[in-house]
Amino acid sequence: MRALLLTIFFSFIIKCDSLFSQNSNQHPIDQWLNDCIKQNQSTAEMVECAEEALKKWDKELNKVYKELMQLLDTSSQKKLKDSQKIWLNYRDEEFSFIEKLYSTKDGTMFIPMRYFDKINIVKNRVITLMSYLQLIKEM
């Protein structure tokens, strides 16, 4: 049983890595953000890029969530909905903490960094939901 769980875990890691690796298979939002930052290197422009990327990840989250909901039975839909509500509370609290943490730092580099931390929180949820979606589609 333990060997099976390890196999499943490593398969998941490999799938996520292949979905979001730092090469041509990079997620389109990550690629867009990288390109935006390359073209806009001032702090203000990087913040604009990061703000837009955060909006794009949020839109992606909603898209994946809706697609997943359509494939679940009623009981599983309720569980996912409850889980998503809890995650949204977590996200809001984490964003609040990030704002508080970075407000104590001097220097313009910390402004885009706060956005990148927020992006990672939403992106990680998207990756999690996408892995559930992939699991269901493989069944």
Characterization of this structure:
This protein is mainly α and 139 residues long. Helices cover 85% and strands 0% of the residues. The chain is flat and about 50 Å long. The two termini are 20 Å apart. The N terminus is likely disordered.
Blueprint of the fold:
Blueprint: H1 2-20, H2 28-39, H3 43-71, H4 74-102, H5 110-138
Helix pairs in contact: 2-3, 3-5, 4-5
Order of helices and strands: HHHHH
For the largest beta-sheet, the strand count, sense and barrel status come to: none
* Low-confidence residue ranges: 1-22
Alpha carbon gap, first and last residue: 20 Å
Radius of gyration: 17 Å
What is the approximate shape?
Answer: flat
What's this model, at a glance?
By secondary structure, the chain is mainly alpha-helical.
List keywords for this structure.
85% helix, 5 helices, disordered N terminus
